[in-house]
Specification:
By secondary structure, this protein is α+β, with helices and mostly antiparallel strands. The protein has two helices and four strands, in the order βαββαβ. It has one domain: Lrp/AsnC effector binding domain/regulation of amino acid metabolism (RAM) domain (Alpha-Beta Plaits, 2-Layer Sandwich). A four-stranded antiparallel beta sheet has the order 2-3-1-4.
Amino acid sequence: MGIGLQALIAVRIRLHARELVEEFRAHIMRQKPVVSLYYVAGANDFLIHVAVGDADQLRNFVLDAVARKEVEHMETNLIFGHDKKWVLPNYRSGV
């Protein structure tokens, strides 16, 4: 598949207007490297999970797709490993 690198990019939006947040979300979801997008509470507004071929492609994605006028701050974290549970917990069954 040509994926050599994955990263989580934390993004803080400059102004929390619904229109800007939705525009940013839609823009990011149209980008090929994006695996998942999380809209979160806390110091950052979004976590973007990306899968790219190499560091150059990651740098280009950050500069071309993420560094936009509505973005106040971004921080890229490389993913060294990933574990995932494929089943969500069921709190209604008492288990």
